[in-house]
Design a protein that fits this description.
The complex is a heterodimer of chains A (251) and B (230). Chain A is α/β, with parallel strands linked by helices and 251 residues long. Chain A has ten helices and twelve strands. The N and C termini of chain A lie far apart (53 Å). Chain B has 230 residues and is mostly helical. The chains are: A alpha/beta (251), B mainly alpha (230). At the A-B interface, helix 3, strand 7 and helix 8 of A face helix 4 and helix 11 of B.
């Protein structure tokens, strides 16, 4: 009886000690396309490590200017490779911490069942009013969509039907609300447990656009933050990769 | 430098913004005058709820308005189904969709100055006009409207400038189509995001100067008109 009570207080004490040691907090800026897997990654990581993560999701370009102006993020999970590289060159991030955490997949998606065929022929028939893409100037997935249309020789034909979302999240909203019949978005937005959640989709062949390698970088604010470093290490584990794969990311 | 700022796409955005703001103001003035007159004279039980409804866009974030408009105007929304039944197609991603959004968004800014002017006038002038045998419509145009002149001017300035500054709603329902829905505020935002700071500076600075000039000129011409703003 006495022993049991001792054990409980020992566990409690150890718990507090481990919390005090491990329970660090870190802020991470995440590209919009990665926000769904990020939630799952964060809860898995927090349960295992005791660290606490605050996530902000948004457009990579916006995070770049915020970081340049002293935003207190420890890590940037970018939607591209150029932004982390620029951040490193401009000394806002820690050198040699950049790595590709995932490679995104572009998908042509419609909220309507059977609207998008498995070969993307729907684009040539053009029996729709609007096709949504993210702004190619601002969003890597928008750039990939523009490259795909170029590769298919459809840029001019579909020009009058293009509507642009400010980021990939807004582009998804245009299509999900059926204001645009279809649109180019990130596979992770409509993919769960290795399959399409709803609607119809064409997974754009990867030779039609430049690969969407997404890089992470440790920022100056996170230099001495053990939680930030632990999360970056966690992203490289098989466990994390399995989670990302379930949302359609590749490696 | 100035050539790169006055490129066709920026010029188009400036022109479109002015067109949107003018059209919105033209639509809002008569609607707001009627609403303001009704609100300042009625004893109906609907006065309070209608007044609250009209003030809603003032307190709601533009994203809320934009989000609901997107759903309402979409093919499954009631408005979208109505416009489709009329053969007009869907209003989202069109200039007229933006006009509708702007009218709703700027409604409280247009109604309130006129309502304040009517209420300040009180019932007396209309009663006197009636004793001089002016019929109510005649009295409204020849007595009430001229007396509410400063309110009407404030209403027009506010509708115009508020529409020029509109951003969230346009972003949500516009789709950034050049010549259709790509207005100044979204263009500036896009320049900033793409790190084209020089272009952003010119357009943003131009907007600040323009807004200041409009308000300054109007307060010189009509000191009472801008008093409602404060």
């Amino acid at each position: 009886m006495n022993l049991k009570r001792h054990c409980i207080s020992l566990v409690l004490a150890l718990g507090f000690v481990s919390l005090a040691v491990c329970g660090q907090e870190t802020s991470i800026a995440v590209a919009s396309n990665f926000s769904a897997p990020m939630q799952k990654l964060v809860s898995t990581f927090q349960d295992a490590s005791g660290h606490h993560i605050k996530v902000s999701s948004g457009a990579t370009g916006k995070f770049y200017s915020q970081i340049q102006n002293g935003a207190p993020f420890d890590i940037l999970l970018s939607a591209d490779q150029e932004t982390p590289e620029r951040i490193e060159n401009e000394k806002s991030g820690i050198a040699h911490t950049r790595f590709t955490y995932a490679t995104g997949v572009l998908v042509l998606w419609s909220a309507r069942e059977g609207f998008v065929d498995s070969k993307g022929e729907v684009l040539r028939n053009a029996s729709f009013h609007h096709v949504a893409i993210a702004d190619p100037k601002l969003a890597p997935y928008g750039q990939a969509a523009a490259q795909t249309l170029q590769a298919l020789g459809l840029t001019d034909k579909l020009k009058s039907k293009l509507v642009q979302g400010e980021n990939i999240g807004q582009t998804f909203q245009f299509v999900a609300s059926a204001n645009a019949e279809l649109g180019f978005i990130a596979l992770s937005q409509v993919f769960l447990d290795g399959k399409l959640k709803d609607g119809s989709a064409w997974i754009v062949p990867s030779d039609l656009y430049r690969p969407l390698h997404q890089d992470a970088i440790l920022l100056n604010a996170g230099k001495d933050n053990p939680a930030a470093k632990a999360f970056l290490a966690f992203l490289k584990t098989d466990k994390a990769k399995r989670i990302m794969q379930a949302y359609g990311y590749q490696f | 430098m100035i050539e790169s700022v006055l490129n066709p796409s920026n010029l188009q955005a400036i022109w479109l913004t002015l067109k949107l703001a003018s059209l919105t103001t033209l639509i809002l003035l008569p609607i707001s005058t009627v609403i303001a007159w009704w609100l300042s004279n009625t004893h109906s039980v609907f006065r309070a709820p209608i007044s609250a409804l009209i003030t809603l866009p003032l307190v709601l974030p533009p994203t809320v308005l934009g989000f609901y408009l997107l759903i309402l105007m979409g093919p499954h929304g009631p408005l979208g189904q109505a416009t489709q039944a009329l053969g007009l197609g869907s209003l989202s991603f069109t200039f007229f969709g933006l006009v509708l959004g702007s009218v709703l968004y700027s409604l409280p800014f247009a109604v309130q100055p006129i309502q304040i002017a009517f209420e300040a006038m009180g019932p007396k002038p209309m009663e006197i006009a009636a004793t001089l045998r002016a019929n109510p419509i005649d009295a409204f145009f020849s007595v009430a409207l001229p007396m509410a002149r400063s309110g009407l001017i404030s209403s027009a300035i506010l509708s115009f400038s508020h529409t020029i500054g509109e951003f969230g709603v346009v972003l949500m329902i516009g789709g950034n189509i050049p010549g259709q829905t790509q207005v100044l505020s979204t263009q500036i935002y896009s320049h900033v995001e793409a790190m084209e700071y020089a272009q952003a500076h010119w357009l943003a600075g131009g907007m600040v100067a323009f807004s200041f000039l409009v308000l300054f000129t109007l307060s010189l011409l009509n000191p009472r008109a801008t008093r409602v703003l404060n």
